[in-house]
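Need tokens for this chain, all 162 residues.
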Amino acid sequence: MDTEALEAARAVAFRFISYTPRSRAEIERRLARADFDPEIIAAVVAECEALGWVDDEEFARRWVDDRADRKKYGRTRLAAELSRKGVDKEAVEAALSATSEEDELRRALAAARTKWRLQTLADVDEETLQAEKRRLVNFLQRRGFSWHLITQVLSELMANKE
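Here are the structure tokens for all 162 residues:
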């Protein structure tokens, strides 16, 4: 194995993971984009894992914790993002299982309250109400919340505004 190429790949990988945590697949793609041999890429990634700098399960847990609370994303969106980052399905499921349905409902309600524009339903015509519901449903679907949670959120908002 070419030691110069190995050192260069290490430098690229270490610089890449120094900014923010990365998944194994992200590092592999970054090194491949820099035209390193697959053998060198595998060696550098294995070294990063051995040093504890790359751990897809920990990466997925932190990603879910951060994005779920900060961005108010639901399970579907979080799973899709982690999948795009190359995290395997088992690690994604493990990370998502750490969040309860109550937590997800709380996040969905918090996200919905920022977008719900109707202060009272007393003087709202049916057309306006339906348009607002559609707008909110679309917003929550883009955030990755399930239909089950979306209906709970709508019920909660409707009950609190009457």
